[in-house]
Amino acid sequence: MPTGSMPGVTTLSDDSDVLSSRVGSGGEVCVLAISWSAEEPWRVGEIAMAPPVGQSEVLGRGEGELGETRVRFAQQRPGVACIPGLPLEGAALSRRQLVLTSKEDGVLVERVGRCELRVNGVRSEAALVRPGDTLYLRRQLLLLCTRRAAFIPRGRFLPPSAWGAFGEPDSYGILGESPATWHLREQLAFVAESAKHVLLLGATGTGKELAARAIHAMSSRAGNPFLARNAATLPLGLIDAELFGNCRNYPNAGMAERPGLMGLVDGGTLFLDEIGELPVEQQAHLLRVLDSGGEYQRLGDAATRRSDFRLLGATNRNPSALKHDLAARLTSVVELSPLASRREDIPLLARHLLLAAARESPNVAGRFVGHDAAGRPFGRFAAGFIDCTLRQELPNNTRQLEALLWKAMSESPQSEVTPPGDWGREVASAPSGAPQSGSSRPTSPEPSADQIRDALGAVGGSVGKAASILGLANRFALYRLMKRYGIGDKTSE
To answer: For residue 169, what is the DSSP state?
Structure first.
């Protein structure tokens, strides 16, 4: 893996116009992200920008012919703009493997090399790919088509020294190279410098506790206690005692004196997960201690105490479910994105989870880990496993990804993680144009006469290729539509 400066990047100050011709509305571009590579696993997470609309580029092994415009992949990080990086390697890739032509509604991909192409698990000679689609060059390379910001602005609060190596967790454990993940890092660094209480919003498995620990670690309270409790597990009749503590023999004879969470966390950070599960009356009891004085009373104690702590509350509910005056005290709000909005991070997360499993359970997961020439570990994944995770719905996010990984390892017969049981086959067997589980785009409607003419024109009249582009099952489906619309068969196969 390359070390030192990243190949294929330039600072914005060096070349601020390098992608200007490719940027669409909202500053976004269509990209292909490397999600799996047989011979260059360290390149997972790199991206290649699609060419400008109407223009073509060639994807293949090594350097291209003189004057040929090539698809080149690079690492995108804050404050830098991607420019052509290292050429692809792979013995089975042709030097001219795919021709990519940008269209208004996607990227036309045509196979011109010897390596078999599959789009969303279906063998194709040509296809119009859109965000959410996967391209698999058999036994060589898996790419995810997505849209993302052309530039990731350099943050003001998270220093580059905390970034970590490309594709690896940062200094605070946050993993991902998508713009959404970099935006999250900047948000966490910003609120860490504040003294305000925080509300973390996100679905199950989006990493709310990890985010809370990152905020604490970046804050001035980092040397003081960090306490984490799930509010839903606090015993209903003892919530106040758990939070504020109690005097000896109160409220019941024989009860020991307890300082409560407020006493234990003085000077530090309290993370209350699922804070929305607290009964409304207990939410009201938090209001005074969350004010600037931090005043509270132990149960059975007449004396007022103070606790200088910061509350980080988390919920997967709508914040309107919180008592309004509690929500008002959680001044800073950070929302964590689900995996569905940052699918290009999934292969990096899968690798991280596998390496962690191998450290914790080497006899179970160790056989799925390999090492490159420099001794760095990487996950031995079958391309089909990564392809399926990219196109599966993962409503429980990282938790569900980890569960799928363990299920796959338990069923994989060799030293490669393969899709578990019917899970992988269900995705791979879906026909081109059918709704894909996990796809970020909806099912395409039946093509119009104009769309059919455009598709035929784009591929030189090949009915088979046009059918693939239009998402039809085969060329006979297209013939039936051509007959319906009165489009003459002046094409070749």
So the answer is: -
